Queue: 2 jobs
Job 1
Amino acid sequence: MSNEHDDTKAGDANDQLEPAGGGDRREVDALGLDNPARRKFLTRTAVGGGAALAGLAAGYGAIEYSVQGRPSKNYPEIDEAIFKPKDQRDVVLTFANSKALNEKHPERNEQYNRLQKKEFDFVAGFRDMYAKPWDNNKPGYTQMDRALQLAGWHPLGVAGSRKSANLQPNTPLHSWDQSDVEEEQYKFDDKQAASDAIKSAARVFGAVKCGIARQDKRWDYDPLYDLETNQELSWEEDFPFKPKSVIVMLTPQDYDCVATAPAWTADGTYGAGYTQMGIQADQMAKFLRAMGYHAVSAGNDLGSSVPYAIMAGLGEGARNGTLIAPLVGPRIRICKVYTDFDFVEYDQPHTWGITDFCLSCGKCAEACPADAIPLPSDKNGGYGFEPSYEFSDEPGYTWNNHHGIKKFYSDAKKCYNFWVENGGGCGACIASCTFNEPDFWHHKFILGITPASPKPLHALMAQMHPAFGYGHTNDPAKAEKFWKTGEGMRVNSSMKNNIGTSNKS
Amino acid sequence: MELFQWFCMGILFVLSVAALSYLSVVVKLKWYTLASLALGAFLILFGIGWAGASFLEGIAQSGALALILFCGSGVVLMTLTWRFLVAPELSKQSD
């Protein structure tokens, strides 16, 4: 289209749009630059473009605002009639690591095997788990995958804290020793400065998120239990001080490695995550002690990590029993530091619409090879104050669940049973989760619109997740792919693996 | 690569705005015609942005589906709008 033609057309359009003053326009048209049609074109481009940019900026702002979450008034919902503090001995990981507890409760093994038609030995489970032979022709279960698995966990074992994953308190990395508390206490100007300083330190130690909650008896294991000596431990008599605050830190796990679940490969990043959280928690505790305050770090021990993380505003409870942290999903490990330092600005529980989304989703339940997670179509959708999964009405079968809190209840016994059969970990519920995404804008966009989206759309969004190619588990190709994601690590130009994304898989 | 993608999308955005402005000058269009064309352009840009991010993260299936769903919807919307709302106005004007 020639300029001449353009001008003619523009002139025609002008005549139609602005009948008044047409005679002057022809004169101006001849001068070229002052052509009113061109002026109109430029004006509309500027105004239209500006309006579109303003709209996009508003949308961006709305997403950023949404991703901050809204303070939640609904958490926790507790049925006081049935709620009581959780005895650490009633946690599967503690029970499975204690011969004494197994001998004390033979009925738990018997009932599980009778109902599930298995011949499973809880206490022999961890011993058997890593004894399964590798098969170099089976991606995800080769000697290399086993090596990654063992290497991931190794430093925790060297540090003598491997059992902290099984809730053993007072291990070397999470020592109760307070002999190194500085006499002089560092004083902060205000509470916000103290919170900011603690969270700054947390980032240096490798945490991807950090929040601070008040110490809460409802989430602490009581009594505590020493697996080595088979002794009960009391918060009042044995714990070295009266804790007031709990600093909660999240450790990221590698996206591509988790994607291989339930292969042994994935256990490599779980082990590495446990190792990192052991180190981080220990560093944070030392940071506080060096400032003159008592502090004890914890991995899975001392208290239930998920509710503490929710109270610290880091995420929401999910169908698979984990914490879902916005932008990282369930692909994290949680560690805690108990301290008597309380001059801090405490964080509050927040919501991103995640638990609501879980009610309609259920991708984790579909992916679970042990059928340990309730489906949305199951009784109450698996959500309530008490477990509603299969056999939960059998007396004593739900010994491992913490009754009385409104949440999703899963059967951790079946989950653990699968780890042993599988030969080391699983994590299919993490890999398949709709919120388990790498750090790209479209995932942030989806997270941002989730709270505002109507509930029927949640089910559709959940269906679209695998349709778009995300969240497939039990895929040997993922393990093969993972081992190639190291390409580019020399330069690592995107740095997205800061939150566990190699940007390759 | 991600920055390059956003740079290209910026160019596409400017071109889209300019094209719609030009069209609004050369032919008298109803507000809903312009809104429909703008929505179509937005869907196409959204799809390209989504697909670019998906290809960068290595999930080609997501990129392909984004092109079909978002860009495809945008193209269909713009085509129908052109066929039934813009073209008649253009022919009326040339008469």
Job 2
Amino acid sequence: MKEKNSQHWASDPEKVEAFVLHRIDESERVFCTTHLNQCEECRRAVQEERELVAGIRYVGRKEMKLRLKQWIQRGQGKRFDWIQAASLAAAIILMLGAVFTIRWFTDFNQSKTRSHEIVLKSDDSSQRSLWIIGKVVEQKRVFRGTVSENSSSFIIKQGNVTRTVSIRSALTAELPLSMRTSGESNLQTLFERNQDGLQLTIYTSTTPNSVTTGIEAVTADSLIVYFRGRQIAYYIPGGWAGKM
Amino acid sequence: MQTPLFFLNDDSKLLDALRNGNDQVLAELFQKNRRPIISLVLRNQGTEDDAEDILQEALVVLWEKIRSGSFEYQAKLSTYIYATAKNIWFRRLARRRRELPAANEAFEVAAEDATPQEELEENERVTAVQHAMEQIGNPCRDILLLYYWEEQSMEEIALKLGFANADTVKSKKYQCKKILERLVKKVLGGNNEQ
């Protein structure tokens, strides 16, 4: 009897809420679901919680849609304000020109490049890490700052700023199943911040031995890594000093 | 010829903006995806207004997924938005078909059945919760929306709504939920009396 009561989890409102909001781990979920199949009262409690959450979320969605409509209308109104649009365009051109000039003379000496695909996979702020799929960059770039290698760590110096990037590779088999993707050009990478700077773990399908790595280029919020004869561009959310 | 580095594609920038709470980016996504969705809906018995409406719904779905952390980038954003809007539209058509059986024959694509979410939304108690939410007032309304819809943590809610700490929000949320449940019972009682 005692054992039966201990399994009667749906009498705990917090547990019911956690179950409905998917805030319990997989093993507990399996246990709860198995119990639900045998307990009419628990099923009712879960259904009532689901209905409550669905009602609240419906209200949220409705409000969001209204807000979106307002933003769209505001945007459409602005679209026909040609003077304002022309002023904005001129300001943007000036700003871009300034940025181009500054970056040209301070950061890089490089050839013209093709487009890059950088994809944020998902993030986990509690672990201060970030999953990224980097896509291979087609053409060679040359980094004008200095990069010195210390085993697998790279110390990057640009002006007064020093950054450390550690690169290691691992097998895709070590990735959780849900994180695996297909495609040759997708090299999944785990970004982690540590005391010294950034740690990058690049996952590949073949053995991680005989890996050659290097840093090819760096900006305030991005870098290109040379890895097994290929260049991979990464975007660093929040920049080097920011929170991931 | 030398050019500066540009790493980010448009999708990454937009996703990053949404993750950082810049929700107005959705209006930009609306403009970018409007044409193909209008074309889809016009080809399938809808109007331009229908198209704009379902595109807005698709964008809200995207926003929810990004906020809850369940969004997985597997295709271009425009592809994801198109697929979501298409599903919403065909489900809406299917619902109309159930309501007007004679209008059945002209559909180009077989519509999917209603999702469990949609079935829930049509449920009497869920409708009662919506009415109760109109009555509950603040700060309960905000707390419940932030916690259950935006899935924000107690700490985030405390910061946003100016509560002393997460524990205060937790106990307030408990009270608010009880009030909502009482209001739902009242709404359902009123409905049954009619």
